[in-house]
From TrEMBL:
The keyword Cell cycle does not apply. GO terms for cellular component: cytosol. GO terms for molecular function: beta-glucosidase activity. The lineage of its organism: Bacteria, Bacillati, Bacillota, Bacilli, Lactobacillales. This is 6-phospho-beta-glucosidase. Keywords: Glycosidase, Hydrolase. One of its GO terms (biological process) is carbohydrate catabolic process. Belongs to the glycosyl hydrolase 1 family. It comes from Pseudolactococcus paracarnosus. The keyword Hydrolase applies.
Length: 464
């Protein structure tokens, strides 16, 4: 059966500055640049962000390929470590302004709406060393200077803005589970980082309301909303799933959409004596500066159960893991290369939650996708990668987006991760997500079968 999507639905793809541009002419190092220089063995194949997919030099040909894949909108990010010369005062680097102006103009000239995010995990490493990074409220204010400079330079042409991509991943990767620099394990500090990230988003939104030049301008936040399905109906497992949801999803979702943190979460953190330091003035800023809309990244659900080990027994003062444990459920569909469960119906559950509990605020799928290793295994005789698994993955997720929209969900688009195979943090180029393949060494770029599918999808706004 033919599934039709609304008029003007965004058919696009998402990427980020640090994962595509390469380090050419950058003013500062972000935490990944630094980490790669000091710990190259953290990176799959020893390949770091130096060249990435060479977007800094290749942006014109890359954007032509994105057009050939039928994308009507593309999200990327402006790198704080490229745009800003003096991090304290927020002065703009001239080459970076030229580059981002050229990129934005090139997107528009090709009929692609540029969607711009500001922070995609890529804090300047010097701010981590000097001030403790996101633990510092001074750093929050420096981020707002960067945000303000971006709005001032580009909001005449860019109408769609986001403050952060997946702030919870910054908390988890940097302060809980050691997969992003600075690789700290400290729950109390993680709580402060989470709060400061929310404050940074709200303050950036306040700055946007001041300097935005475009009447159509909108701003939001991109969250990885991960449904937590309890292992069983036992009260212990139910409570574990409820807390996991509060911590992973509702922390940023409630504050960004409703302007206040969930009281249940604040109660737990208060009782455990790990609540963030906040002021009444800051909480008023958070309350006032809620988002216009949301981006939702979805890759996989979580399965949650009551924790088997109290973190107290691990000699760590406090971790959110005190209340839940995420486990691998047996017998489910998996993307084995990435180790993530495939469960498309979760997207429907997310849609229902936003519709019923968040005032049916407008949102779009800002990332969804399938990272597959060694895709040259699927190279056809025509030289095109036959990624039928990706086409199936997209269709299955869109099936549930369509169903939710038919039931009133306020979803306005779908962005695949990612247009062109890109550098992916510590997995580097192991898993490929793109509609367009990259030969990392030669920088040849070729449309995959999924790009041809996506072009037809975008042109008709429907599939069967
Ligand atoms: C999201 C990030 C992206 C991208 C994607 C794929 O969490 O926003 O930057 O990396 O996940 O995940 P990975 O690269 O870890 O396979």
């Amino acid at each position: 059966t033919l599934l039709e999507f609304p008029q003007n639905f965004w058919w696009g793809a998402a990427t980020s500055g640090p994962q595509t541009e390469g380090r050419f002419h950058k003013t500062h190092d972000n935490i990944f640049d630094y980490d790669f220089d000091h710990f190259p063995d953290h990176y799959w194949g020893g390949i770091g962000p130096d060249t990435a997919s060479n977007f800094y030099n290749d942006y014109q040909t890359d954007i032509a390929l994105m057009k050939a894949a039928g994308l009507s909108s593309v999200r990327t990010s402006i790198q704080w470590t490229r745009l800003i010369d003096d991090l304290e005062t927020g002065t703009v680097n001239a080459d970076a302004a030229r580059f981002y102006n050229a990129v934005i103009d090139e997107f528009i000239a090709n009929g692609i709406k540029p969607v711009i995010n500001l922070h995609h995990f890529d804090i300047p490493v010097s701010l981590v060393h000097k001030y403790g990074g996101w633990e510092s409220k001074h750093v929050v204010d420096l981020f707002v200077k960067f945000a303000q400079a971006s709005f001032t330079l580009f909001s005449d042409r860019v109408t769609d803005w986001f403050t952060h991509n997946e702030p919870m991943v910054v908390v988890e990767g940097g302060y809980l589970y050691q997969f992003h620099y600075p690789d700290i394990i400290d729950g109390k500090r993680a709580v402060q980082v989470a709060y400061n990230l929310q404050l940074a988003s709200s303050k950036a939104i306040a700055a946007f309301r001041q300097v935005n030049q475009n009447p159509d301008g909108k701003i939001g936040i991109i969250l990885n909303l991960t449904p937590n399905y309890p292992a069983s109906a036992s009260p212990e497992d139910q409570a574990a799933a409820t807390f996991a949801d509060l911590w992973q999803n509702r922390l940023f979702l409630d504050a960004s959409v409703k302007g206040a943190f969930a009281a249940e979460l604040v109660d737990v953190l208060t009782n455990d004596d790990v609540l963030w330091a906040s002021t009444a003035e800051e909480l008023a800023i958070i309350q006032k500066n809620t988002v216009d809309y949301l981006g939702v990244n979805f890759y996989h659900p979580n399965r949650a159960q009551a924790p088997k080990y109290a973190p107290d027994s691990l000699a760590i003062d406090w971790l959110p893991d005190k209340y839940f444990e995420v486990f691998d459920k047996r017998g489910v569909r998996m993307n084995a290369d990435r180790g993530w469960e495939i469960y498309p119906k979760a997207l429907y559950d997310i849609a229902k939650n936003i519709q019923e509990n968040y005032g049916n605020i407008a949102w779009f799928v800002s990332e969804n996708g399938m990272g597959v290793a060694r895709e040259d295994r699927y190279l056809g005789e025509d030289g095109i990668i036959q990624d039928d698994y990706r086409i199936r993955f997209i269709k299955e997720h869109l099936y549930y987006v369509h169903k939710a929209i038919a039931e009133g969900a306020n979803c306005f688009g779908y962005h695949l991760w990612t247009p062109i195979d890109c550098f992916s943090w510590r997995n580097s180029y192991k898993n490929r997500y793109g509609l367009i393949a990259v030969d990392v060494h030669r920088q040849d770029k070729t449309l995959k079968k999924s790009a041809h599918f996506f072009k037809a999808l975008s042109a008709s706004s429907s599939f069967d």
